[in-house]
Design a protein that fits this description.
The complex is a heterodimer of chains A (about 160) and B (about 100).
Chain A lengths: L4 E6 H14 L5 E7 L5 E3 L5 E3 L1 E9 L11 E3 L1 H13 L3 E10 L7 H6 L5 E8 L2 E10 L6 E9 L5
Parallel strand pairs in A: 1-5, 1-10, 7-8
Antiparallel strand pairs in A: 2-5, 2-7, 3-4, 8-9, 9-10
Chain B lengths: L2 E4 L13 E4 L4 H11 L4 H4 L10 E5 L2 E2 L15 E6 L1 E3 L13
The chains are: A alpha/beta (about 160), B alpha+beta (about 100).
């Protein structure tokens, strides 16, 4: 598992993701990660892949559209994606990924996660066990869609800019 | 002038960071075919191995969802804009036997 920290976020942003997961428990929460690439050059992962260092600078919490199975599925519609992109442009940022929670399951991507993933985006997963947020991980799909690699998250104390 | 195709952010790594391209096409299917001929690495992210558009790939012609038009047979003309917009989905495994909840 690659663990080079390729994703940065403030402790405040990390806390907001955890809180969203706790608020929607036992259902999955979801939202967009707004940020920028190339904030501090590139990072080479243990697999030898060069990735730009990416920083999450704001969140765009969203409504999980999967009302039929919200405890183990989340869905963001194309219209929601457009709304998130508009919000990002308003902050001069990009939508660089998505977060969601796994209620009472580990922060590991499911086969369903991988099948529905897009490349390039960071997918942050927070585990919420019995209502309490726990481990948080981030994943990126490989170019050939065969692998969903874990990327290290560096959490810093500085407030998001 | 042709049909302008807007590339979604996560796929711009396969188009040399270009956010749009122009193609000559009479239908959406033809436009996507030309797009994936020009940028071959896009194909597996837009289409399944059977050649069908992936379910989380949404295509609009001038802001109209092609699912409510004629899908990939939707006609296009010079000056039209085709937007490819992701939808996002995921979720936890249906069953999990090995997880010990953290305090």
């Amino acid at each position: 598992m690659a663990t080079a920290p390729t994703l940065k976020m403030s402790a405040e942003i990390a806390q907001q993701i955890r809180q969203h997961g706790a608020q929607t428990y036992p259902h999955e929460c979801c939202g967009a990660l707004l940020g920028r690439d190339d904030v501090d050059g590139e990072v080479t992962t243990p697999a030898g892949v060069q990735l730009p260092l990416r920083e999450i600078m704001a969140l765009f919490p969203m409504t999980n559209r999967r009302e039929d199975s919200a405890h183990n599925r989340f869905s963001v519609t194309a219209e929601d994606v457009r709304d998130a992109e508009k919000a990002a442009r308003g902050k001069k940022l990009d939508v660089v990924g998505w977060y969601h929670s796994h209620p009472d399951h580990p922060a590991r991507p499911s086969q369903y996660d991988r099948e529905h993933a897009w490349p390039w985006y960071s997918y942050v997963i927070v585990s919420v066990a019995k209502g309490k947020p726990g481990e948080m991980t981030s994943w990126r799909l490989s170019d050939d869609r065969s692998e969903y690699a874990c990327e290290g998250i560096a959490i810093h104390d500085r407030a998001a800019g | 002038m042709g049909v302008r195709v807007i590339i979604p952010t996560p796929l711009r790594v396969y188009t040399g960071k270009r956010d749009s391209t122009e193609v000559k096409a009479q239908t959406v299917g033809e436009a996507l075919g030309r797009l994936t001929t020009e940028f071959g690495d896009l194909r597996k992210h837009l289409f399944t191995e059977e050649g069908k558009l992936r379910s989380f790939v949404n295509v609009y012609v001038n802001d109209e969802d092609i699912r409510y038009l004629a899908k990939e047979n939707t006609p296009t003309k010079d000056g039209d804009t085709i937007s490819i917009v992701p939808s996002i989905a995921g979720g936890s495994p249906l069953r999990c036997c090995s997880h010990t909840p953290r305090a």
